[in-house]
Amino acid sequence: MDLRRLVPLLMVLLVVHLGLVSFSLGNLVFKVQHKFAGRLRNLTEFKAHDARRHSRLLSSVDLPLGGNGHPAETGLYFAKIGLGHPSKDYYVQVDTGSDILWVNCIGCDKCPTKSDLGIKLTLYDPASSESAARVYCEDDFCTSTYNGVLPGCKKDLPCQYNVVYGDGSSTAGYFVRDNVQFERVTGNQQTTLSNGTIIFGCGAQQSGGLGTSGEALDGILGFGQANSSMISQLASAGKVKRAFAHCLDNVNGGGIFAIGELVSPKVNTTPMVPNQAHYNVYMKEIEVGGTVLELPTDVFDSGDRRGTIIDSGTTLAYLPEVVYDSMMNEIRNQQPGLSLHTVEEQFICFKYSGNVDDGFPVIKFHFKDSLTLTVYPHDYLFQISEDIWCFGWQNGGLQSKDGRDMTLLGDLVLSNKVVLYDIENQAIGWTEYNCSSSIKVRDDKSGSVYSVGAENLSAASRLLSGRIATLLLLLSAMLHRFT
């Protein structure tokens, strides 16, 4: 499969069971919904989602935005935000793999006009917003985003953006400054309406999948590390800390995504690899059932198209071929009688009637500063019927040459943990946690600590609700193809 030919992310595939999911910016709240809620999908679609995501993670960008400009088109979650004055609602994909927020604008060429997601698309019109203002090429935002003045810049020339993806699709437009409307958490289960001012992209032209997708949205909301991202802009304005955390519950349902200072639970961290566009970390070794895999010493080296990325927008987990083969061999050594079958030409599945946690090994990923990510059999195995299971580990060597040496750890291994992305201190961490409970974040304005939980925030905010279709139900469609 050539990832460069596919149209790809978001941010967050919360594999949850008919639960409620909350997004909060420490003390800010957005409405979040599942892009495919109630729609049946098969194993191939989940793999295709990841392939499209990785295409955008690995693709090139024209006029790179802060070194990180890879928004993705097929993320499974989207947020409802308000823009302008008077405020209008827009539905945007949430993406950790890109930086800027952009929405389709009035007069846009080849922008989608309808969506199969059951939402009404709205074109943003700067002229209809009393608070809108254009950003020009000589403005500080533009020069800092592009590390200097753009060639040909002259007075009153808008600051433009143009992102080109690996499959040839693209988005182009110009930056504007306007109000963003959100709900601020002012207490446990209490919110009030609040506004901030941010700079975002006004999409004037789309091509490829961005202009024709039946699953179209109004735009993309990037949660990357660059100064141009919304989280960085809100942090600069004193609204939030430059950090966020999520807790994905695939046991009891529910999930939390909070941006701001995480107070509880306490999380140990490992340093990020510096000067990377994505959330890269240093992996040291892998342990399967107590056995440390013997791997080439350079297999986890960081560098261009190498290293380990923590990405909850990816559904499964992708390993370099040498790592994948070694891991699968060790798992089979501990289950020598296992009869494996290939499903849909890409998934390794088998029949097993026992308790997988008793019959299969625990896998541990060891990172710099002694941080360990523990993955249990019920995490890395998908049960698609009463006694049919499939491995979530994927062979990165079967992908394009751009991605074959990368390790991508997705939602498969991140569920049932609080995962912290501390951009300010360039660290990522996690701890096992009951994601159906709540976490605590600090309100940057008052210093007060509030509980953030999916059910509490959903009850408190009219902007929050979302019923999530379980992954296991979505996988059941392919059972008739298992032999």
UniProtKB/TrEMBL annotation:
Key word Transmembrane helix present: yes
Pfam families cross-referenced by the UniProt entry: TAXi_C (PF14541), TAXi_N (PF14543)
GO molecular function, one term: aspartic-type endopeptidase activity
Residues in Peptidase A1 domain copies: 77-431
Active site, renumbered: D95, D311
Highest taxon of the lineage: Eukaryota
SUPFAM superfamilies hit by this protein: Acid proteases (SSF50630)
Xref: CDD domains: pepsin_A_like_plant
Any single GO BP term: proteolysis
InterPro entries: Aspartic_peptidase_A1 (IPR001461), Pepsin-like_plant (IPR034161), PEPTIDASE_A1 (IPR033121), Peptidase_aspartic_dom_sf (IPR021109), TAXi_C (IPR032799), TAXi_N (IPR032861)
Coiled coil feature spans: none
Record's keyword terms, sorted: Aspartyl protease, Glycoprotein, Hydrolase, Membrane, Protease, Transmembrane, Transmembrane helix
Transmembrane residue ranges: 6-30
Family assignment from sequence similarity: Belongs to the peptidase A1 family.
Name recorded for this polypeptide: Peptidase A1 domain-containing protein
Organismal lineage: Eukaryota, Viridiplantae, Streptophyta, Embryophyta, Tracheophyta
